[in-house]
Amino acid sequence: MYSQIVDSVAVFDSVAAMETIHENAHEFQKIDPWGIGLTFIGMLVVFSSLFLLFIAFKNLVKVLNYLRRKKQSKKGEILSADLKEDVHTGEVNAAIAMALYLYSQEQHDQESLVLTINKVARTYSPWSSKIYSLRQHPRS
């Protein structure tokens, strides 16, 4: 008896929910017949969520560095003043650029830049042979 009541209530709730959804859809269609408002609401939701994800990913490194510093301070480790790498001087940058240039020049072998085309004595090629065409009927 109890299960029948629960089943009938569940069916009544689903029917009532479907009727409510249809009524709301018809009301919204009266308010916004072409769907322009719904389009702008959807675009606003999508772009605002993308913006929030951008902000979260942009600040993720800062949060992780803060948590790491906090964990190191609890352990009593010495914290470094700057976590950034040292900036190289101009001489070091010039040496690196020169090494990369010389390395890229060594990769190319020297060619004579003379192209010759020699005619082959035999002109037969199985790629152009008519005996291999698809018009033949296979024997069973």
Describe the structure.
The protein has 140 residues and is mainly alpha-helical. The protein has three helices and no strands. The protein has helices at 2-31, 36-75, 90-106.
Unreliably modeled segments: none
Number of strands: 0
State the major sheet: none
Separation of the first and last Cα atoms: 72 Å
Q: What overall geometry do the principal axes of the alpha carbons give?
A: flat
What's the tally of helices?
3
Q: What is the overall pLDDT average?
A: 78
Class by SSE composition: mainly alpha
Order of helical and strand elements: HHH
The radius of gyration is: 37 Å
Query: Could you estimate the helical fraction of the residues in percent?
Result: 55-70%
Instruction: Please state roughly what percent of the residues sit in beta strands, choosing from under 5%, 5-15%, 15-25%, 25-35%, 35-45% or over 45%.
Output: under 5%
Ordered list of secondary-structure elements with their pairings:
Blueprint: H1 2-31, H2 36-75, H3 90-106
Name the descriptors.
mainly alpha, single chain, 140 residues, 62% helix
What would a concise description of this structure say?
The protein is mostly helical.
